[in-house]
Design goal:
Strand order of the largest sheet: 6-3-2-1-7
Shape: elongated
Order of helices and strands: EEEEEEEEEE
Number of helices: 0
Strand content: 35-45%
Structural class: mainly beta
Distance between the termini: 7 Å
Bound molecules: zinc ion
Length: 106
């Protein structure tokens, strides 16, 4: 996956187009990611027990990884990334604009 947990991404297609948020979870099996405050869906919850209120909670729904683009933490802009190989053999993602290293690739 080219997107990782804790990456900041921008949504470039779909209902949530234009929103930015932090990746909370990556689901490689379905090629989807859960992005903080993106694609919020309302869920009705039942009262679970004493002191806990039932009601409506908002929860993020997964979005396709092809609908998001990584935002470079340094340029603060959607970044095209390239793969770079470090001296110790690790492969990392690198911002094409500022050359900032954006974490390991796997
Ligand atoms: Zn950058």
């Amino acid at each position: 996956m080219r997107i990782k947990k804790n990456d900041t991404v921008k949504v470039i297609a779909g209902d949530s187009k234009g929103l930015e948020g932090k990746v909370l979870k990556v689901i490689p099996e379905t090629g989807r990611v859960i992005v903080e405050k993106v694609k919020l869906i309302k869920r009705h919850t039942r009262q679970a027990g004493q002191g806990q209120q039932g009601g409506i909670i908002e929860k993020e729904a997964p979005v396709s990884v092809s609908n998001v683009i990584l935002v470079c933490p340094k340029c603060n802009k959607p970044a095209k990334t390239a793969m770079a190989k470090l001296a110790d053999g690790r492969k990392v993602r690198r911002c094409k604009k500022c050359n900032e290293t954006l974490g390991d690739d796997d």
